[in-house]
Amino acid sequence: MSDKSTYLANASVNWLRGTAMPTAPSTVYLALYTTLPAADNTGGTEVSTSGTAYARQAITLSAASAGATANTVAVTFPVATANFGTIVGVTIMDSGTAGAGNQLYRKAITSIAINTSDQFVVAIGALTLTEA
Fold first, then answer.
1. Domain total for the chain?
2. pTM of the predicted structure, to 2 decimals
């Protein structure tokens, strides 16, 4: 994952100007989208939480090495109780509440339909962030 959000890019540039970075989130979350939002977090469609069992999932990341990190625990979403739709992208967010928070990174993925009784899982090491 390498598509830094406008929010995080602005924070980084402002830090270079001597402005304090925003407080680091204690937890970051993976969100699933049927329409991937733009870098400024507009225009996206996150999976509905209404009757689907969908919820953003916390991510555990490794310590940075050579400008990169990856998930150290599988990211497992609840079994869908109704269709999530076709997932076309993911974002890393600083809030666990669907539709809320700041987008940190976003990435288009190979589309995958998540139907009733399906489960979206990201294997250990499959979610990578690179700043190099």
1. 1
2. 0.93
